[in-house]
Write a structure and sequence with these properties.
Elements lengths: L2 H17 L6 H12 L6 H12 L5 H13 L3 E4 L4 E4 L17 E5 L5 E4 L3 H13 L9 E5 L10 H6 L7
Helix pairs in contact: 1-2, 2-3, 2-4, 3-4
This protein binds zinc ion (2 copies).
One zinc ion binds next to loops.
Length: 172
Amino acid sequence: MTTENTESLLISATSACLQQGGRLTEKRKRVLSILLKSQQPLSAYQICDCYSTVYAKSISIMSVYRMLKFLQDMHLAHRLDTTNQYVPCSHINMQEFHDASHVSPQFLICDQCNHVNEVCLGENTLNILNRELERCGFSMQENQLEIHGTCRQCSPPIDNSSVLGSSDTAPP
Ligand SMILES: [Zn+2]
Ligand SMILES: [Zn+2]
């Protein structure tokens, strides 16, 4: 993420907070900015380390957790339960930011490069999934969906010619 992008996202985040009755203080803004600039999801401890390096000021882990909680409450950041890491929300500067659909965020997590993609699978898909889970006597935790796998960049290229031409797959 470029500095310019980060700046404009921080401006959007500030007004999103105001709309929700919160205030994006300087420290909270710094934590969000660390998340936005990182190419990877971060743990609270990594944020803590990064904060003291970037801003030459130490910060307690408890403060970091408090600020992350605030950012989560404002839907500016998300916690990945399966990895215990944090990512900035991908919808900070979007109009539909406060849509109810955002109540159940969905994440595609690449286990090779740790890249996280926040996606919108759509209400229908989620309803179907929830119904199926209900049928199994199961309820999804907080409606947050985290799918682990391999992203496009990390997937080996599909070489059709070798598959079709291979004698292994040819019928006897
Ligand atoms: Zn989000
Ligand atoms: Zn990947």
